[in-house]
Design goal:
By secondary structure, the chain is mostly beta strands. The protein contains 4 helices and 38 strands. 33% of the residues are buried.
């Protein structure tokens, strides 16, 4: 008995479903100003002319003329074809084949689909009345309140207001154009998602080339993977890029590379921010700047943060760096706390404990300026409390300090001269050849000029009434070896690898062993006494006196 009841219930459900389906697939009703019966090749049909109206369920079709095939429940409409599907959808075209059993409308030529404020234009549209899915295959265009999309092939789902476009897709928004081969678009949220190569250009000349992303067109926000942003002055590459076009603010994360198109500058880092309104780019995460110089020599600079500043006034365009700056070039290495690199005159300003090394020379000051010409270092200015130390062939530290120093370089990047201006003081160890220590010149002078040969200090010229004292090795006490403020910091000198990997060396550098210097001076003097006669020794001392200031 229970089984019979169950079968009756199943049967009633099936009958109800069949009745609903039959009701949905009802025959097409029609009317027209003129109606005639016709037959061709044994097939009977009705020919309708003038103000033709077809109806099926909630679908109404208007046209100028039509053929209706009753047995197949198919209508062919021509002229000013117009379909109304309920209260929401209206479609117009020149031709229509309407299949009543499947409720599929095949519209051709000058097709316009309307749903609310949305429009779709094509010459080839297939529309299913039941599912409300529209499909075009030979080029189409979707227009809503905010964007216009065109492609070779597309499907629009009216109920969910989602569209899928393929092949030669173009999205035109008020602020940018987007080109791709595959795009998902919601005409409700105005969000577009591309999954293949995508190219964007905005109205101000900025372009984006990516492997796809999400574009929130109402909020003017874009997120995409593995992309390139190109502005007027810079090219920015990253694994993940976010654009806020309303705020004119871009970010890039992962393997960031920012390239200056005008100045042969490339900055690498983990993360970058670009403020388009202010023309400011910031790179974080162990950023490294690479500047290609003449003869393929390269200047490398790293920092905690590097900032590139654009400006219509080229004199104000610059790159800023902070903190823990490291600099490497084949002929020059350095470090400081912060830096400013002005692109117009190729000048680098180093601030807060700046220090430079050039071969065997070390230079320090409150601030240091490096001036380049034709991509070669040309001049160096050490401002306030300038200090120059140079290691000679016997491991002794020649030292000069003053209020400021101006160094000049030759075409090979080697320091050639150094002018000392104001409060000059010098400790200069006099050698005969490269291995015979004669004594130390201790000199006070307001102006000095140091000459270098192959980056080694060779001689000093003194001006303006110098006060000089020559101290032979045996009379040289430990306290006289070093000027106040001397610190030999060569173990802080960065290598190329230090700059590229952001390896900050320990700044606590032990000073040279003064006792060993004393012992060394005594040993050298003993060696002189062994090998040199009293007459020769006096000759050496006379030569040393000749090296005193002129």
């Amino acid at each position: 008995m229970r089984r019979i009841k169950f079968l009756l219930i199943v049967l009633s459900v099936l009958i109800g479903a069949h009745q609903m389906q039959a009701q949905r697939k009802s025959k097409i009703r029609y009317k027209a100003q003129k109606l005639t019966n016709a037959q061709e090749k044994g097939e009977k049909y009705k020919k309708l002319i003038g103000k033709v109206v077809f109806t099926q369920n909630e679908t109404i079709v208007y046209c100028d003329s039509a053929y209706f095939f009753k047995d197949e429940n198919i209508m062919e409409a021509y002229g000013r074809v117009r379909i109304k599907d309920g209260d929401s959808v209206t479609i117009t075209a020149r031709k229509l084949i309407y299949e009543g059993d499947t409720e599929m409308a095949l519209l051709r030529e000058d097709v316009v689909y309307r749903r609310g404020k949305k429009r779709m234009y094509t010459d080839f549209l297939d529309y299913h009345m039941t599912t409300e899915v529209a499909e075009f295959k030979n080029d189409g265009k979707l227009v809503d309140e905010h964007n216009t999309l065109t492609s070779s092939y597309g499907i629009y789902y009216s109920k969910t207001e989602k569209a899928y476009f393929y092949n030669d897709v173009l999205l035109v928004s008020p602020d940018f154009n987007l080109r791709t081969d595959s795009l998902e678009y919601s005409s409700y949220t105005k969000v577009a998602i591309s999954t293949g190569p995508t190219y964007i250009d905005d109205r101000e000349g900025t372009t984006v080339d990516s492997k796809g992303g999400t574009y929130r067109t109402l909020r003017e926000q874009t997120t995409f993977a593995k992309g390139t942003i190109e502005t007027r002055n810079y090219i920015l590459v990253g694994d993940d890029i976010f654009i806020d076009e309303f705020k004119k603010f871009y970010t890039a994360k992962g393997n960031v590379v920012m390239t200056s198109k005008k100045d042969d500058i490339v900055i690498f880092g983990d993360e970058a921010l670009y403020d388009k309104e202010q023309g400011i780019s910031k790179v974080y995460g162990k950023p490294v700047m690479k500047k290609i110089m003449k003869d393929q020599d390269t200047l490398f600079m790293s920092a905690d943060t590097l900032v590139a500043i654009e400006n219509v006034d080229k004199d104000k365009e610059r790159v800023l760096g902070y903190y823990d700056i490291l600099i490497y070039q084949d002929a020059l290495q350095g470090k400081c706390d912060s830096i400013a690199y002005f692109l117009s005159d190729s000048t680098i300003h180093m601030y807060r404990d700046p220090i430079l090394w050039n071969e065997n020379s070390q230079m320090e000051a409150d601030s240091i300026d490096l001036i380049f010409k034709n991509d070669l270092i040309y001049q160096m200015n050490l401002r306030r409390q300038a200090f120059l130390s140079s290691l000679d062939t016997m491991g002794q530290h020649n030292q000069i300090k003053g209020r400021e120093m101006i160094g000049r370089f030759d075409t090979l990047g080697h320091i050639s001269t150094m002018d000392v201006n104001g409060n000059g003081e010098s400790h200069y160890f006099v050698l005969e050849g490269d291995s015979l220590f004669i004594g130390m010149n201790k000199i006070f002078c307001s102006r000095m000029k140091i000459n270098f040969e192959e980056n080694n200090m060779r001689n000093i010229t003194f001006y303006n009434q110098p006060e000089a004292q020559f101290i032979p090795p045996l009379e040289l006490v430990v306290s006289q070896h070093f000027l106040d403020g001397f610190s030999w910091r060569v173990n802080e000198k960065p290598s190329k690898n230090d700059v590229l990997t952001r390896t900050i060396k320990d700044a606590s550098t032990p000073e040279p062993e003064k006792s060993s210097l004393k012992d060394s001076a005594k040993a050298i003097n003993d060696e002189i006494n062994k090998r040199v006669s009293p007459e020769q020794k006096k000759e050496f001392q006379d030569k040393a006196l000749q090296r005193k200031p002129r």
